[in-house]
Amino acid sequence: MKTVVITGASTGIGYACVEASLKAGHRVIATARKDDDLKMLADMGADAIHLELLSEESVNSAADKILALTDHHIDALFNNAGYGFQVAMEDSTWRGLNDQHTANVIGPIMFTNRLLDALKPNSRLIFNGSILGVITVAFRGPYCMSKHALEAAVDAYRLELEPRGINVHLIQPGPIEANFRNNTLTALKQTLGSKKTHLDYSNHLARLESRLNTKGTLPASSVADIYLGIVNGSHNKPRYLVTQTAKSAALFKRLLGSAFHRIAKKAEPVIKQ
User: Fold this and answer.
1) Are 139 and 205 in contact (CB under 8 A)?
2) What are the alphabetically sorted keywords of the record (predicted)?
């Protein structure tokens, strides 16, 4: 039995990883923000801890509780929590950009640093990135920025933690079944409000509002399978692209370089044709 910590565990990828970990017989410490979600996780058999990545106080409090629960011994930490602030760069707000990077980059890094001493040799430090940390498309600029930054942070951790025997991994999902689009849509509408913009958000909004999955979408369990393989030691690569969509996009970006711009432009028109 291993002790694993999973953030953002109330829905989607995090929830699937909690389920997979418990089924595998591991001890799970799972974080969420809402009381109902914490109760649900506790009923599943996990130790549930409140964590709000936008709050330094919450990050420190959650870390203190986890260190006490684990007696300073964690076998795997999966930084999964985060959200998407998907809006055009010119329509971004100071608060929106700040919260996006705090939740997706700064918060997970500070949380990780508080728990680092509990990660022993041969432990696993895992981050949930995105194919949008490899490519950039219109109306996702702030989110892409945060995931590109996370890519750099993971590479730095890998270089700096290798002497301590801590294995660092990044999972890069493409489209996955989750509540991600609902949260993204809420943040987008709050930002735009009655604001005038000359950009055409119709395709972007239609995708977020649709109940249908985008082409190539896989269940959250597809990420949980990779995560569990990393925890159990059968998956040792530093990066794992998940979904054929993500794998194809990463390949085209690598082959085309700056010319990938033409594909991204066609995929998401920003003005009415």
Assistant:
1) no
2) Oxidoreductase
Query: Count of CB atoms within 10 A of residue 41's CB?
Result: 25
Q: To which residue do tokens 């530093």 refer?
A: 238
The residues annotated with a catalytic role in the active site are: 143
**Sheet strands (E) in the chain:** 3-6, 27-32, 47-50, 74-79, 119-128, 167-173, 239-242
CA angle 21, 25, 31 (to 5 degrees): 40
User: Please, which residues bridge with residue 47 across strands?
Assistant: 29
Q: How many domains does the chain have?
A: 1
CB-based contact 19:43 (threshold 8 Å): no
Phi, psi at 121, each rounded to 5°? -55, 135
Q: What is the pLDDT of residues 85-117, one digit of tens each?
A: 999 999 999 999 999 999 999 999 999 999 999
pLDDT in tens, 5-41: 999 999 999 999 999 999 999 999 999 999 999 999 9
Chain-centroid distance, C-alpha 227: 12
Nearest to 229 by CA among 15, 82, 24, 28: 24
Identity of the amino acid at 142: P
* pLDDT (0 to 100) of residue 243: 96
Q: How far is CA 9 from CA 13, 16, 130, in A?
A: 7, 8, 17
Q: Alpha carbon 129 to chain centroid distance? A: 5
**Domain-located, residue 273:** no
Looking up residue 115, the CATH number of its domain turns out to be 3.40.50.720
Per-position b or e across 77-95, b if 16+ CB within 10 A of its CB: bbbbbbbbbbbbeebbeee
Residue 272 within a domain: no
Residue that has been written with the tokens 């951790």 in this structure:
157
For the CA atoms of the chain, what is the radius of gyration? 18
Domain extent, residue 141, equals 3-267
